[in-house]
Amino acid sequence: MEDAMMSAIQLERWAHEADAFGAYGADPLAARSAKVLGRSPRFVEALGLPARLIAELPLPPSLGLHVPGVPGVVRVELDAVAAEAARADGELVLDAAEWRSVVTGAEADRLWPVDLVGLCRRKRSEPAFRIDAETALAGAQPDPSEAWTVGQVLERVGAEVLTIALP
Fold it and tell me: Which end of the chain has the lower number of beta carbons within 10 A, N or C?
């Protein structure tokens, strides 16, 4: 029994390292993020995508995030119809425009875990509140030369991917 458990642990480690370090050409930072934040290796490819562009995909994904300090799941709904439906269900939702603002704030070194927690709490208490670029940048100027991956942005704001789904 002990040998079987050891083999399963070794296989799991191998599978994680294979996914994280090049079996699918993943971004090394996304791979590190997956290890640091305990993300499932199946999300490594998605974490390596350019954060600004995922909302522009023909089938924009829906992300379920764990944000420490925020009860429940924070939904990133990049499809407008899905975002409105989730809001109508009372979920805490970041839509495509808010996601872009979060990305811009993280890339400008102005949005950190404590900031995201505060913004999520405000969204929960004030459902009409939307995160815009001005709020996320907190007076800084955006850096157009920065182009972070989804993994880099989530690592910066302290969020962990729980689910990724397509509409």
Answer: N
